[in-house]
Amino acid sequence: MTDYDVLRVFCGPRGGYGNELGVVRDGSVIPDGRDRQALAAKLGFSETVFVDDPERGVVDIYTPSTRLPFAGYPCVGAAWLLDVPELVTPAGVVGTRIDGEFCWIEARPEWAPPRTLRQYASAAEVDDLEVPPPGEWIYAWAWEDEAAGRIRARGFPGRGDGIDEDEATGAAAMQLTHRLGRALNITQGAGSQLLTAPQPGDWIELGGRVVLER
Fold first, then answer.
1. Where in the chain is the domain with CATH 3.10.310.10?
2. Which of 91, 95, 112, 212 has minimal Cβ neighbours within 10 Å of its Cβ?
3. How many Å apart are CA 110 and CA 108, to the nearest integer?
4. What is the pLDDT of residues 174-188, one digit of tens each?
5. Is the pLDDT of residue 160 over 80?
6. 112 to 13, 72, 75, 169, 199: CA distances (angstroms)
7. Does the structure show a pLDDT above 90 at 2?
8. Could you read off the pLDDT of 46-81 as tens digits, one per residue?
9. To the nearest 10°, the Cα dihedral for 3, 9, 12, 13?
C-alpha cells in the first residue's frame, strides 16, 4: 500500500473536527493519473493530494471521482505539511504562510468549480437540512452574527461518490467571501472553523488550523 499521511484541516479552536485529507508525500510512486484516481477513490477522503515536488510545492489534487485544478482545504493542508512559501497547482500559484496556529493560502475563487451558494434565514435552518440528492454542489449558509462576520455553513457536494457532506470546504468559503466582499469566520459541518479575508485584485485569503492525524 502506498504511504500517505492523514491531516485534519480547518480544526475547531480546541483541535477537534476538521476535514480529513490524504497526502501522498512522494507522488513519484504513482505517476499515472488513472492510478492516482483509483487510490483517491480507495482512500475515500473528500480530497487526496499527491506531492510531485516538495521543495517547489507542486501538488496534484483528486476527489474520489475526479481531478481538481485547485481546492481550498487540500492546499491549506499541503501548505502546512510542506511549509513552503507557495504551492503550484494546475490552476495557478497559491501563496502560503503560517501565522501562529493558523495556516493561510491566497488564491482566486474562480479557480475552483462554481458552487451554488444558498442562503438561509437562520443557523438553525442550516443545521436542520437533510442531505440533498446528487446534483449541484450546494453550499448552505446563514448569518450567525452579521456584524461580526460569523457564518454557519454546510457543504453538500452532490457528486454521488460517497461524500454526502463535506465537513469543511475552503473553495466554497472563498467564493462566498468574494460575493459578500468581507472577511468571514465560518463554522461548517460538525464544528470546523474557516477564516477568510478579501485581498486586492479579487484574491482571497483562506486560513485554518491543521493537525497531523496519522
1. 5-106, 111-201
2. 212
3. 6
4. 999 999 999 999 999
5. no
6. 27, 8, 12, 11, 17
7. no
8. 999 999 999 999 999 999 999 999 999 999 999 999
9. 90
CA distance 18 to 21: 9
Architecture (CATH level 2) of domain 5-106: Roll (3.10)
**pLDDT at residue number 134:** 87
Phi/psi at 76 (5° precision)? -60, -45
**Is 195 a residue whose pLDDT tops 90?**
yes
* Whole-number Å distance between alpha carbons of 74 and 129: 26
The CATH architecture assigned to 111-201 reads: Roll (3.10)
Closest CA to 103 of 8, 6, 3: 8
Read off the pLDDT band of 162 (50, 70, 90): confident
Give percent above pLDDT 70 in the chain: 100
